[in-house]
Write a structure and sequence with these properties.
Elements lengths: L10 E5 L7 H13 L3 E4 L17 H13 L3 E6 L6 H4 L5 H6 L4 E4 L4 H11 L3 E3 L6 H5 L1 H12 L6 E2 L5 E4 L2 E10 H6 L13 E6 L5 H13 L8 E4 L8 H12 L6 E3 L12 E3 L2 E5 L4 E4 L11
Parallel strand pairs: 1-2, 1-3, 3-4, 4-5, 8-9, 9-10, 10-11
Antiparallel strand pairs: 5-12, 6-14, 7-11, 8-13, 13-14
Helix pairs in contact: 9-10
Length: 309
């Protein structure tokens, strides 16, 4: 059953699979979701904090139970992660993927630490997901462009099939076609060898971004991806934001050192991820990367069926 666009009146679940959320910030995000005509459902443990590990939104079992119950609920059209942080790796293997596969499909929205869940949904459920802003994150309520691009992707996906940004540049020129996959570089590297991660990104357009990781740390991540075989056979690479990762020229040098010899096009600064204003990138859908034009064009809208715009 293909995923459909959202429509006014849809119930969406708000889950906290990772870090503890700021209640006031989430309240502002919920207000925006309601202006879209959606009915947000805050899951029972969203406002929990782990008793000894305060960077987690409660116990692993509780975070997993919230996420799974939302996925199994036929009345829920989408699951929005309220924020990233840390902790998705601790709960992802507690999910019953057989039960979730038998449930009506739904859309997953989130980025950063949610990369672990994007990978797991792709591997276990073979569904497209949205690497996009979260209602409990500051950018969602502060930047109208960020929220609006997500809204159009959810409700009127035909209007967001061409992805680009004001600062795009070709690190390596050329065109390539493949399925969009990836996310936050540190999570992709840390996930190598786990049950949730795919063995490699062969044939895909690898999406990469991160925040507050210094060039030597980015070097380590890309080395891990290369040594593990994850980069073997990739069709192209699409880079997003590297906010707080050091001088732009230093980050660019690391990227060129690791990715420039792959023999595939590499597009820089598409404008997604941990940046003050970001676009939503669908994962699990085929697209064409044109590094010279600075665009990623989906073969077709991420959702099928009548739009909810």
């Amino acid at each position: 059953m293909p995923l459909r666009p959202l429509r006014p009146g849809d119930r969406i679940a708000l889950a906290a699979p990772s870090g503890a959320v700021d209640p006031a910030r989430l309240a502002r995000g919920i207000d925006i979701l309601r202006t879209w005509g959606l009915e947000p459902v805050v899951l029972p443990h969203v406002h929990d904090t782990h008793p000894t590990l305060p960077y987690l939104a409660g116990q692993d079992l509780h975070r997993a139970a919230d996420f799974q119950s939302a996925w199994l609920d036929p009345e829920i059209a989408a699951v929005f992660c309220v924020r990233g942080g840390f902790g998705a790796q601790r709960m992802v293997d507690l999910l019953d993927w057989d039960a979730m596969r038998a449930a009506p499909p739904k859309t997953l929205v989130g980025f950063s630490d949610v990369t672990v869940l994007h990978e797991a949904v792709a591997r276990h459920l073979d569904l497209p997901t949205l690497y996009g802003p979260m209602p409990g994150a500051a950018t969602f309520s502060r930047d109208a462009r960020t929220a609006e691009h997500l809204r159009r992707t959810l409700f009127d996906p035909a209007t967001t099939t061409v992805l680009t940004g004001p600062d795009t540049s070709a690190l390596v020129p050329g065109r390539a076609h493949g399925v969009l996959m990836g996310g936050c570089a540190s999570l992709l590297a840390a996930d190598r060898g786990t049950p949730a991660a795919r063995p490699s990104f062969a044939g895909g357009l690898l999406v990469l971004e991160d925040v507050n990781e210094q060039p030597y740390q980015l070097d380590r991540m890309l080395t891990q991806l290369r040594r593990s075989g994850a980069l073997t056979g990739v069709a192209g690479v699409v880079l997003g934001s590297w906010d707080g990762c050091g001088p732009v020229e230093s980050v660019r040098a690391v990227m060129l050192d690791h990715l420039g010899g792959l023999g595939v096009p590499v597009l820089g600064e598409l404008g997604f991820g941990h940046c003050p204003s970001s676009i939503t990138v669908p994962l699990g859908v085929p697209a064409t990367l044109d590094a010279d034009a600075g665009t990623v064009t989906l073969d077709e809208p991420v959702f099928s069926g009548p739009t909810g715009a």
